[in-house]
């Protein structure tokens, strides 16, 4: 990984310090078998150097309101992908921050957002979107197929990925986002020139 830009580095350090207090990493949770039904993110913040990024993500499916959606049609801006579920407590915690960031005109000038409603029926996801007042579409992913398209980078609930102008995963947060951390990551990725 490349050194983080100053702003993102400070935010990442704060997030990792908080995560370290719990002593309960993603690997630890996987081994403990607590039967809570998901692995909670530990607050890991990662910026991926341009030369270390994988192939472009091909994310496609049907939104909770029945519309066809594909990431290939959303490369004019940075794309923020948030994996969530109504049964995930940390997802509920981060929802207000996601609403704040995705409603900020300075952010929406450079980024688009999409959710991935993981392992539940569309009707349940739709009700949760309405309750949280998410202003962007979410893909229905009851079988977990959409998450597989995220190249193993969405290993916890919730997970938020920032895709660059070429559709590659440039940054991620495993665990609830904060307004300042997510905004900083989006700004850093949006400031990059497309690789093409």
Question: Which key phrases capture this entry?
Answer:
alpha/beta, globular, single chain, two-stranded antiparallel sheet, 196 residues
How would you describe this structure to a colleague?
This protein is an alpha/beta fold and 196 residues long. It is 35% helix and 20% strand. The strands form two sheets. Strands 1-8-7-4-5-6 form a six-stranded mixed beta sheet. A two-stranded antiparallel ribbon has the order 2-3. A hairpin with a 5-residue loop joins β7 and β8. About 15% of the residues have low confidence.
How much of the sequence lies in strands comes to 15-25%
Summarize the biggest pleated sheet. Answer: 6 strands, mixed
Instruction: Classify the helix fraction into a percent range.
Output: 25-40%
**Which class do the helix and strand fractions yield?**
alpha/beta
